[in-house]
Amino acid sequence: xxxxxxxxxxxxxxxxxxxxxxxxxxxxxxxxxxxxxxxxxxxxxxxxxxxxxxxxxxxxxxxxxxxxxxxxxxxxxxxxxxxxxxxxxxxxxxxxxxxxxxxxxxxxxxxxxxxxxxxxxxxxxxxxxxxxxxxxxxxxxxxxxxxxxxxxxxxxxxxxxxxxxxxxxxxxxxxxxxxxxxxxxxxxxxxxxxxxxxxxxxxxxxxxxxxxxxxxxxxxxxxxxxxxxxxxxxxxxxxxxxxxxxxxxxxxxxxxxxxxxxxxxxxxxxxxxxxxxxxxxxxxxxxxxxxxxxxxxxxxxxxxxxxxxxxxxxxxxxxxxxxxxxxxxxxxxxxxxxxxxxxxxxxxxxxxxxxxxxxxxxxxxxxxxxxxxxxxxxxxxxxxxxxxxxxxxxxxxxxxxxxxxxxxxxxxxxxx
Length: 416
Fold this sequence. Notes:
This protein is α+β, with helices and mostly antiparallel strands. It folds into 2 domains: 26-68 and 197-407, Multidrug efflux transporter AcrB transmembrane fold; 96-190, Alpha-Beta Plaits, CATH 3.30.70. It is built from 14 helices and 8 strands. Helix 7 (192-226) packs antiparallel against helix 8 (230-255), helix 7 (192-226) packs parallel to helix 9 (276-306) and helix 8 runs antiparallel to helix 12 (344-376). The radius of gyration is 30 Å and the shape is elongated. The protein starts with a helix and ends with a helix.
């Protein structure tokens, strides 16, 4: 990029379509916005917080699932086939829950007793085993010749056909009941419903660690950059608030089925893909921190020179206005294009990321940041004395702050 710019030189603006005017740092749009917000920070900030909380309320009722045929459009033959099974052949739309005993040689009577117990579980349609097919606690078909035991005589397996949707709460409950039923040998439980149960457990058991890594890393980097412990905490809270509103919108549109025309009328399953919100969280959080660093760099730069928190916020917002607006617009357009996909979770990723970027670049940057920093005042830059000494040694900055004497000299010369 530097080499290309050096070759182009002033010719880079040769075919300029729109005549740009230099930014007015004294009376620009973003400075006027920040100043207006900081006049009434409680009212403006409170209104936006209330709006984001309201948008995030649907997320309290989120239900997760794994993608199945219904992520495809209704015109797809795979989806049409599964839908016929789902509506016209009750009990045949759910994928079997596979119960496998890798080792052990129970008698046919023990296998039959186990299959009979499984067939009595709520949510079970039938159980196929080497001892026969069972439904509602009684045998309905004879034992097959082969196929349900290992060739070496060690181990066996059963197929539990559910009477409920595999990717539903009832499907997950069936898996838990199967795992809780005594068996004649140690068994493993698989299938799509079991995969959903284990995926949710795996994600939930490690979610706290991922969140801790993100929070600690972000706080450390922003502390080294600003010397403050308040600013990193503010950034975390505002990002979480913005993302909660985005996730609430995803539940409202894709789980509850509102505003389907906006995203091409996807099939509503009553669940969200388990992994997509996690991906959205990580990507959106990273993008939000990019904007945060851009903005804080200009605010901190002005505060180091003027020691005036209100002026620093207004000037910082104005100086980064065009940069962040252009970047957010470009990224939002890219994500919005994902809505044209025929796959539901791609649509959800595109709409969710676009909303996250737009909310961060408008409501968070334009209202919440100046409102919070106005209320906190000089406390924005506070840190305990030991951490302050640490920052003096390892802190980073884009510039060398003017010493007080030079600031006074510069101001005097400007007055002259």
